[in-house]
Here is the input.
Amino acid sequence: MRKVKMFLKRRDLYINGMKYKVQIKIVADTLGLKIEYPLGIWLCDIFEKGLIPEIALQKQRGVSATVWNQLCKEVYSTYENRCMACGTTEKLSVDHIKPISFYPELGEVFSNLQILCRSCNSKKGNRTIVDYRSAFLA
Here is the structure.
């Protein structure tokens, strides 16, 4: 159980306050997959095969996939394709400045989005509000 929870946390899939088995079921349902046991091995397999796309994660968190796709395109076209915190161009994702776990109404708002690499996004987590855009655009 602890290994599965850590797996979800490391990949920014963990939603605080929700049981990890429920989260895994949501991911599986979103992707149309059957859950296999042991969970840790199954999760590693589907993640490494690229079966957990960003869109599925956002759908899991309650953001419309169509709107999220459009927002991601706008963010990537507006800002340079590099992490706004460290400047890398590897493993980029669109991050919510104000976490949607606390501000669900901002889940589909362009002004609440920035580009971060997975590493910086994981360090930021969903408990802090850090806007890297001002330093990046200066």
Notes: Helices lie at 2-10, 20-31, 39-48, 54-60, 65-78, 118-124, 133-137.
